[in-house]
Amino acid sequence: MTGWIKLHRQIMEHWIWEDSKRFKWWMEILLLTNHTDKKVFVGGKIQMIKRGSFHTSEVKLSERWNVSRNTVRKFLKLLQNDNMITTKKTGNGTTIEVHNYDVYQGNNEVKKHENEQQNKQETEHQHEHVRDNEQNTTKNVKKEKNYKNVKNEKKEKNHSAFEFFQNNGFGFITQYTAEDINYYLDSFENDSDEIVIAALKLAKDRNKVSWGYTKGILNTWLQTNLNSIDQVKFFELQLKEMRKNRNTSNQFQKKELTPEWLENRQYKKPNILKSNIIENDENFNKEVAAFKDKLNKKWD
């Protein structure tokens, strides 16, 4: 896509100028908007998208900006509330109309776009100019924000589930994985980003750095109807306490006493029968001796 848009200095007084990330998203919306009427193929049909509009979807924008669909939805709602855009959802995506598009793309620019091959050098220069403006804007925002705003910006950045996934060894985010992550971000009513990050942290702490293991944790929380990060923390603390009590109980179980004869395999029972036989033999011999003595006396 070639061409350029124009910006007035008044943009520096707008609230979006103070947020470098959302200002970049707004610039991309302006650059994606059609500068002339354009036919597009949507849902098996050819549709005419008017000048000042373009057709996209929350999924495409979430992948483009590397954020969740919920974040995209909130940003578009913010622009609508400020009367900057109008969105029209269909079964095949969302059509976004930029209000006051002529402010950014006047009639003179339309003619230049029709002759873009002749003005290629000029348009490329303007692209560089826009990129320079974005870089300068980022620097100015950092200088103008106070410590609290900078801290909040860093905190918000660290709370991106997509960034945590990529920065902690879970691998490359494919389109399938991105849709998977967005599913869980949309499934939890509150604190969805923090909840997904909490599951990723648990998996990493248990040396199970895989998205499959993380999904198992998230599915357990969903099945338990946990709807906030506080509920998740309380649930995990309960599980930890239960495991601790179970281990303590096992350690203090009494050991069953084992009979001495079973412990000492060499132990032998006393031979009672043999001792009785020996004793009986001695008595018998005494009786025989007495009988012989009696006979001898009789014959004498």
TrEMBL record:
Domain of life: Bacteria
Biased composition (Basic and acidic residues): 111-134, 141-150
Domain DnaB/C C-terminal as annotated: residue spans: 162-233
Disordered: region residues: 111-150
One Pfam family this sequence matches: DnaB_2
Signal peptide: none
NCBIfam families cross-referenced by the UniProt entry: DnaD_dom
Family classification: Belongs to the DnaB/DnaD family.
Official protein name in the record: DNA replication protein DnaD
Species for this entry: Staphylococcus epidermidis
